[in-house]
Amino acid sequence: MIPKLIIIEDHPIMREGLANYFTKTNRWQVVGTASTLAEAKELVKRVCADIYLLDIQLEDGWGLDIIPCIKQGRPAEKADPIMAVYSSFDDYAHVSAALGMGVQAYICKRRGEQELEAALRSALDGKQYIDETVQSKLNKTVNLFSLLTRRETEILRLVTQGLSNKQIAENLKISQRTVENILSCVYDKTGIRSRAELERL
Hints:
This protein is of the alpha/beta class and 201 residues long. It has helices at 12-25, 37-46, 66-72, 92-100, 113-124, 132-145, 150-160, 165-172, 176-190, 195-199; strands at 4-8, 29-34, 51-54, 57-58, 61-62, 82-87, 105-108, 129-130.
């Protein structure tokens, strides 16, 4: 049985190129495409697929926000859908957010169509697929987190999400000076010397 695929991608050339590639293989049935979160929400109300290929950054929102809509609109008799991300983001914060929402395959856009198809096939076979570049970063970050206390880990996670010290202080209801002191400990323990490097984790 040919798997049904929906592609959610805001770049028109990328979206059309992927749709054409998968259609021409005759191994996939592209049952819909969307360029925005709003379009995607309307599409998944009308059409069900076996696998959903998502971009994270859309013009009008966060591509991962479509996942709850897909699951809620799924007929009870249908098998759970597979979520796959094809993204230019390869940092810890984006990848961990995607995996935390149940994404089964995460592929970087530097990979070509054949590598992308292999990743989707792996996910259809019930295996989690994580791009090797992403996996090495995940391993590195997990090792770094093992050096930190719970509070240090909490603050580091917020830094990787792009929050300022002031925003972190407000989020955790602590003083900005406390955030600065804890970050100083993080720098000492990890050997990282710049905030930009922390944000790229």
